[in-house]
Task: structure prediction
Amino acid sequence: MATVSITDLKKTFGKTVALDGITVDITDNEFFVILGPSGAGKTTTLKSIAGLVDVDAGSVSIGGTDVTLVEPYHRNVAMAFESYALYPQKTVSENLASPLKSGRTGKYSEQQRTERIEQVTTTLGINHLLQRFPRELSNGQRQRVALGRVLVRPADVYLLDEPLSHLDAKLRAAMRAELKQLGAMSNTTTIYVTHDYQEALALGDRIAVMNRGKLVQIGTPHDIWRRPADTFVARSLGQPEINVLDGVVDDGRIRLADGSLDVAIPAGAAVDRGDRVRVGLRPCDLHVTGGDGSLHGKVLLAERLGRNIELTVDVGGAQLIALTSGRHGVGEGDNVTMKIADSDVHVFAAGEGDTSRLAGSSADRDSLEAAQ
Result:
């Protein structure tokens, strides 16, 4: 177990900026998740920690020791790549045992290796595959074996690069809890990369949202969900993604769309009458009611998603996405009334592209738990 400190890390590939001044301190035994789209720099960050790429500037420290110029073999980190990287000529058991037979881990006896392999494979659900070769496994099984090769090895830091990407949805959901449990049992610092916001919310002690080589926001899952730093972070979490509408501050309310609709100004918002802003409303926070509500519209599209129905609603000339349960019996062409709690309104600066948060949403954890 060890702390990881990254200071002003920079890396370019030709004219492409992969890392643009990354700085973060990761505490001992923390499960730290880096969330971002493809090309954000997530994998480059992991490889920089592992020593697999030479950084242009900045430093990496593990356990208080500067390892920026240390060879990967001597950093005592274990990394799982998105690709499987298995020995094709070895069985699953032999693949899993190989990290325990060399270097710092070579001191383990045969019994200790067997116990470690049994513990990890049982958790991953691959204990019945120990005598098979990689060619005899499905893609999902290979992915779990590759993950097992990392987790079976005692290390100061685990670096996991989208290790669940090839698993089906049901297995991915089951594996989230198991991964968190394995990290806790190993007392090892874990840095986990993903583009899946549900994985980030479920696994992370803290989440760093990354975009274009920069860490946009670092915080707990609750903070990231309830207080996104800008519209990029807000859109990164949630499916369907957050609705963002242009508005104008007027008489203690924010007028939206054609001006016929309004929402409350959240507490702490530094805005004045006449200011233009952007308002974020999460679909899961919009409640379809049979009575009072400040948002009135007509359902353009109703899509059933399991127990919920996703509604596309024309509200004052703008389109809002809302989620409702099937019991409301709402269909296309129906007129609906929606309401949203004042504390669930996010306010961002006006402008094009990604704009910073001004205020909003600091209430309870209900929406976060629903999203997971």
Notes: The longest helix spans residues 169-186. The radius of gyration is 24 Å.
